[in-house]
Model the fold of this input.
Amino acid sequence: MMRILFSTLFALLICSNTSAEVNLKNLHSSRVYSKVLKEYRDVKVLLPNEYNDTYYKYPTIYLLDAETNFDMGIEVLSFLMDNHFIPPHIVVGLPNTDRFRDMTPVDSVMNKNIFRTRGGADNFIKTLELDVFPFIADNFRASTQRLVMGHSYSGLFVVYAFSKRPDLFDKYLAFSPILWWNNKAIVNDIDQFLSNNSSIRKQLFVSFAEEAAEMLKSCKSLILSLETKAPSDLKWNYAWMPDESHYTLYRKSLMQGMETIFAEYKYPDVQVLVEKGVEVAETYQRKVLLSYGRNEKLPYSLLENVCIQLKDAERYNDAMAFLKYSISNYPERAESFYYVGEIYEKVNQPKEAVKFYEIAHNKDKGRWDYENKFIAMQKLLVELENKTQNNIDL
Done:
C-alpha cells in the first residue's frame, strides 16, 4: 500500500485542541497478578464517555509504556473519540516493570552487558493472553477486538507480536520501532511471515522519524518487504516524519495512525454527499454496522447542510432523497419537513406543501416563521380553490 500523507487540516485541528478534556470519572486504576511473570502489574483504564449509558461491549486499545505515555495518549484518544474520528474504545494502559525484558525478543549475545534481562517478549505475550486479557474481560464490557500500540522498544514488541501472534490483536501500531535489535532479526521475521501467509486480515501502521543510519536502513527494508510480499487483505500503511526525532513523533504518530486505521469511520465529506447522493450515507451506515457493530447515523447538521445545498441548486429529486433519509433517522426534527414543504411549493404542488408545513409547525410551535408559512399556504389554497370555483361557475 502506498505511503499516506497526513491531512494538514486534521493536524491543525488537533494542534488547536491540545487540551482535550478527559473525564476523570471514567479513569480506573487496578493491579493484576501475572502468573507468568510472578509479579503484580499496574493497569490503567479509561472508559468511553458513553459507557454507563449503553450495553455495548467495547473494543480495547492497549497502550504500552503507560508510565510515560498514558496521560498524553488518553488526551489524544479522548479527543478522537469525542469528535468521531475513531469509535469509542476502552483504553488499557500497561506501565512497565522491566521494559527491556518485556519489550525485546530473544537474542543471542547482543547488548548482554547493557540489557541483562533482555529477551522476554514471548513471556509478555503470555502475560497479555493469560493474565491481562482475562482481567479486562472480567471487569469491563470489552469485546474481542483489540488494538495495540507502542513506541521505540514497545514499537519493536508490536512488530514482533504482529509476526509471531497475529491472532492476539486486530490492529497494530508501531511508532519508530527499534528494528535494528538483534542484528535486524525482526525485519527478517516479518519478511518470512509475509512469505508464508497468503492471507493476513489485520491492520498495521508503522511510523518513522529522522532515524540513525542503521535504523533508517532497517525501516526501508521493512517497507520493501511489505510492498513486495504483503497479501492483499493486509491493510498496512507507513508514515515518514522527517521533521520529527525518534523521541518526538509519538503524538503525531498516534493521531495519524488512528486517522489511517479508522478512515472508514469518519463521517463522509459534505461535498462527497452532495455529488454522489444518499447512497453514500446509506453505505456508510452499513459499513459502520458491519465493521464496528454500531448503528451510527450521520449527524443532523451534516444532513441539513447537504439538503440545503441540493435545494438551493434546484436538484429537488436529490434533495428529496436526502430529506426522506433524514426524516427516517431524525423524525423529531421539524426542519426536514419544512424543507420538503419548500420544495413542493417551488414545484407548484401547494396541496402537498401545506401538509409538510403543518407538520413542521406542529413539531416546533415556537418557530413563528413556520407558523406564518403554514398560514400563508392555507390562504393560498383557499384563494386557488375560490378561483377554480369561480371559473366553474362562469
Q: What stands out?
A: The two ends are 77 Å apart (CA to CA).
